[in-house]
């Protein structure tokens, strides 16, 4: 909705002791995108992160022979282009003066802040929502979740070869996949699973799988290995902005996985149109969401 807020937009705003001042508002939840992302500040127009080689092993050195020297190089880079966001509202002097019962300025200034939070929620979740989309590629030229990430000796996977719904077995398979991950040159990467991210439809199933002492949905009195071994030390989080009820996502301990660069935190400002007697309130911020190292996350789900 665009235009100017005028007093006619709020016919009840002059009624004394109006009961429900903020009808239709809901408090925002804590940022649902944060459990899956590393947050970094930025002071540049864009950020560029490069993936470089690692050394493999140190070869044996026979007596009196020369040491073997290894080389290294940049393999690919990821560019984070910051997006600018800006929005606001305008209100006439009459609506401002007559709207004291509803406190329109406080109401809609808060709404600007909530809208900024909601924007980040959508953009953060979309990294995962589009993670299996072959047209949405990262620095290595393929989508975030695939069995075909290019490495020095072929390909590597951060998703199951056969997609599976959330279950004890599928989580175990992904934990094993993470344990077997290697760096670009084939060294074991020593990565662990950290946290699970799920849509609302899977919340109760995740609770049963991760927090039951014994195994779920079995007559056997076996230990819940996922819980006992602490495979998800940061537990699980629910993200309302995930667009599939079946896909689930895991954050690993790999550095520089899914990232958010905060270039300009939200800034509020106010101005006025002198002749029209209209006040203007706006918010502006800049940031970018993406990923550098695909090993920072694994995922699966029925499609």
Give the structure's gist in a few sentences.
Helices cover 19% and strands 28% of the residues. It has one domain (84-303).
Q: Can you tell me about this structure?
A:
The protein is α/β, with parallel strands linked by helices and 303 residues long. The chain has one domain (84-303). Helices cover 19% and strands 28% of the residues. It contains five helices and 13 strands. The protein has helices at 93-98, 104-129, 168-179, 203-211, 225-228, and strands at 4-5, 38-41, 46-52, 74-81, 83-92, 149-151, 154-156, 193-198, 236-238, 248-252, 258-273, 278-291, 297-300. A five-stranded mixed sheet has the order 1-5-12-11-2. A four-stranded mixed sheet has the order 9-8-10-13, with helices on one face. The chain has a two-stranded antiparallel ribbon with strand order 3-4. The longest helix has 26 residues, at 104-129. It is flat and about 85 Å long. The model is unreliable at 14-23 (pLDDT under 50).
């Amino acid at each position: 909705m665009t235009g100017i807020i005028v007093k006619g937009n709020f016919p009840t705003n002059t009624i004394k002791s109006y009961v429900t001042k903020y009808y239709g508002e809901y408090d925002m939840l804590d940022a649902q995108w944060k459990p899956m992302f590393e947050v970094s500040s930025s002071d540049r127009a864009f950020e560029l992160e490069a993936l470089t080689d690692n050394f493999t092993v140190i070869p044996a050195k026979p007596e009196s022979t020369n040491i073997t020297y290894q080389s290294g190089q940049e393999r690919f880079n990821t560019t984070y282009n910051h997006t600018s966001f800006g929005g606001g509202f305008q209100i006439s002097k009459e609506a401002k003066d007559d709207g004291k019962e509803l406190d329109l300025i406080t109401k809609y200034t808060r709404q600007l802040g909530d809208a900024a939070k909601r924007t980040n929620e959508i953009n953060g979740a979309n990294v995962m929502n589009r993670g299996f989309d072959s047209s949405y590629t990262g620095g290595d030229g393929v989508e975030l979740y695939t069995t075909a990430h290019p490495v020095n000796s072929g390909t590597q996977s951060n998703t199951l070869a056969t997609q599976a719904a959330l279950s004890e077995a599928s989580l175990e398979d992904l934990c094993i996949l993470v344990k077997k991950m290697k760096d670009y040159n084939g060294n074991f990467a020593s990565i662990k699973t950290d946290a699970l991210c799920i849509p609302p439809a899977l919340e109760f199933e995740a609770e049963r799988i991760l927090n039951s002492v014994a195994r779920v949905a079995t007559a056997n009195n076996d230990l819940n290995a996922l819980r006992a071994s602490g495979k998800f030390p940061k537990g699980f989080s629910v993200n309302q902005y995930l667009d599939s009820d079946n896909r689930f996502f895991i954050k690993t301990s790999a550095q520089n996985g899914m990232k958010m660069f905060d270039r300009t935190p939200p800034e509020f400002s106010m101005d006025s149109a002198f002749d029209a007697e209209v006040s203007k309130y706006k918010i502006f911020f800049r940031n970018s969401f993406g990923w550098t190292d695909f090993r920072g996350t694994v995922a699966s789900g029925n499609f």
